[in-house]
What we know:
The protein is α+β, with helices and mostly antiparallel strands and 65 residues long. The protein has helices at 2-13, 17-20, 31-34, and strands at residues 40-45, 51-55, 58-62. It has three helices and three strands, in the order αααβββ. A hairpin with a 5-residue loop joins β1 (40-45) and β2. The relative contact order is 0.13.
Amino acid sequence: MRISFIALLLLLSLPLPAIEKGFPVIKNFSTDDYMGGSRIFSLVSTNDGILYVGDKDGILEYDGI
C-alpha cells in the first residue's frame, strides 16, 4: 500500500506535456493600461476575434495584441 502511494505521488509530480499545452496565457490589465472604467458591464466578441468591452466610461476595443 505504501509503495503504491509513493508511486502515485511520483507519477503526479512529473510534468505532463498534454496538461502544459493548450492553456491560454492570462494577462491582467490595470485601468492605467487601457484608460477605461473599473467596472465592466458587457463583453462582445466578433468572428474576427475583436473583443468589445462596455464599461461605465464607454466602449473599449481589444484585438489581442
